[in-house]
Task: structure prediction
Amino acid sequence: MSIDREQIIKEQFTEISLTPKNMALYSVRTSVLCAVKNALPFFRGEVLDVGCGIMPYKSLILKNKSVNRYIGMDLRQTDYHGKVPPDLYWDGINIPLTDNSINTVMATEFLEHYHSTNNVLVEINRVMAPGGILFGTVPFIWNLHEIPFDEYRFTPYSLRRHLEKSGFYKIEIVPLGGANRAMAQMLGLWFPLVSFKGKKILKWGFYHFFKWLIRRDKIFTEFDNHRNSLFSGLSFIAYKHE
Result:
């Protein structure tokens, strides 16, 4: 791994520090990192990282002694991984691996970009070994990005239906962040996009309010129509039938 890549991974993914300039990035990256760490004890065997980008979690995953191999997979041309080639290329439709060959699949911030959710989940299920685990995250509060390849924002109910329809079971879906983080994320996204008189003066006030929201955030475990209805994104774990 090059020094530049190591530095980028630390500064933007695994050891990101909060600054007034990176509030939105900090919110989503720290919550995804927390979800990855929580799921790691379930990882085993060969791990396939779908839409791996610059493979920011590779070193973290390989520290798990139950993991034998990490495979980062991405499209041949993507701005996201830039000069970092993945371990495996795919065409966005067919995964070039045999049936029942992968024990663990992860797909962080990936499904929202895929036009046919069921098709890609069925293909992921195909390459997974019986009893294999699928881990992923999806955003909920986020602006349009990677246009025109930004397709969906999932609710926990639509996500569960897609997973079940694609052959997964024992599905657990939890928020990446609760209402306070959702509000913080919205502020972090909104502030750089608008221009108004006094913006520079308000910048530090927004920053300290953002920090307060992040500290006060509480992640709930059951969704409802009231207090537990606003979240920043979702994390999920699902299993392939034995």
Q: What stands out?
A: The CA atoms of residues 45 and 217 lie 34 Å apart. The two ends are 37 Å apart (CA to CA). The chain has seven helices and seven strands.
